[in-house]
Amino acid sequence: MPTVQDIRQMAGDEPITMVTAYDAVTATLVEEAGVDIALIGDSMGNAVLGYDDTLPVTVDEVASRTGAVARGTDDTLVVADMPFLSFGTDLQTSVENCGRMVKEEGANAVKIESGDHTIELTERLSDLGIPVVAHVGLTPQSVNQTGYTRQGSDPEQAREIARLAREHEKAGAFACILEHIPANLAAQITDDLDIPTIGIGAGSECDGQVLVVNDILGLSERTPPFAKAFGNVREEMRSAIDDYVTAVEDGQFPAEEHSHVAEELDELY
Ligand SMILES: Nc1nc(=O)c2c([nH]1)NC[C@@H]1CN(c3ccc(C(=O)N[C@@H](CCC(=O)O)C(=O)O)cc3)CN21
Ligand SMILES: CC(C)C(=O)C(=O)O
Ligand SMILES: [Mg+2]
């Protein structure tokens, strides 16, 4: 399994791949594809739980899915994405929530949407042996403040994002997600940091890339402008379920090969 140290050393080397997974089956496929890091994203809020955004996602929900992904993988670094208000309120509760992912669910690290209020937490977690991935730029848990628009487009905002990334590196983060920021800003942050940057909507100059697996598969109804579908799984699923319904309605399923007969029951009545 790649360790956090292996990932750290991939900065400036071969591109790091990170994909979300929310269940053991998907996690197994993600691992078979050779993905370096599986992220149990709070994007499960819209990707699997039917919410409009990530804010309602609970610690229990992320914990349950983290356990599933950890059981589905051997060789992939498992990172739990800490949901809205599971951290940042007080240090002790934050550490306990993060610790639960590692201690009870098999995560190797946690990811935290970063702000000035997460610098001390990042330091504490790193000291305690809980590796942290930072996350700057568009942080979807702040949707009520920023919406989902691109971030860091003016120099002042851009410098602020770069500063936050640097502060979290200093606090001990081993990687930093850059979301929905200009490619030329992401390139400069990648240059500036020693730890690897992992981009989503942040251009090609990051040390790695991450996407939501539903978006990769072509399963999402709506996707952010920076995502790309590499498959058409939504259509595949729809057509398989359609075919099943038609077969049942037409009496074509189940066929003899899907049924069995116990001879001694022939004349029960
Ligand atoms: N399936 C999925 N993929 C994701 O990448 C993702 C999630 N879900 N859920 C959590 C967040 C939300 N993300 C989003 C969602 C929408 C836009 C988006 O549509 N941005 C447009 C419109 C912005 C606006 O509303 O003003 C843009 O042009 O930036 C971007 C990122 C990224 N994350
Ligand atoms: C897209 C990644 C970075 C994320 O935070 C998520 O899936 O929740
Ligand atoms: Mg997230």
Bound molecules: 5,10-methenyl-6,7,8-trihydrofolic acid, 3-methyl-2-oxobutanoic acid, magnesium ion
Query: How far is the first residue's CA from the last residue's CA?
Result: 61 Å
List unreliable stretches of 5+ residues.
none
CATH homologous superfamily identity: Phosphoenolpyruvate-binding domains
Mean pLDDT: 97
Helices and strands, in order, run as: HEHEHHEHEHEHHEHEEHH
Total beta strands: 8
Kindly estimate the percentage of residues that lie in beta strands according to DSSP.
5-15%
> How many helices?
11
* Largest sheet, spatial ordering of strands: 1-2-3-4-5-6-7-8
Number of domains: 1
Q: Structural class of the secondary elements?
A: alpha/beta
Name the overall outline: elongated
CATH class: Alpha Beta
Describe this structure in words.
This protein has 269 residues and is an alpha/beta fold. It has one domain: TIM Barrel. 40% of the residues lie in helices and 14% in strands. Strands 1-2-3-4-5-6-7-8 form an 8-stranded parallel beta barrel, surrounded by 6 helices. It starts with a helix and ends in a 20-residue tail after the last helix. 3-methyl-2-oxobutanoic acid binds at residues 20, 39, 41-43, 81, 177, 200, 210, 212.
How is the topology of this model organized?
Layout: H1 4-9, E1 16-20, H2 24-32, E2 37-40, H3 44-47, H4 59-71, E3 77-81, H5 91-103, E4 109-113, H6 119-128, E5 132-137, H7 143-146, H8 155-171, E6 175-179, H9 183-192, E7 197-200, E8 208-211, H10 213-217, H11 233-249
Parallel strand pairs: 1-2, 1-8, 2-3, 3-4, 4-5, 5-6, 6-7, 7-8
Helix pairs in contact: 2-4, 5-6, 6-8, 8-9
The structure holds 5,10-methenyl-6,7,8-trihydrofolic acid (MHF), 3-methyl-2-oxobutanoic acid (KIV) and magnesium ion.
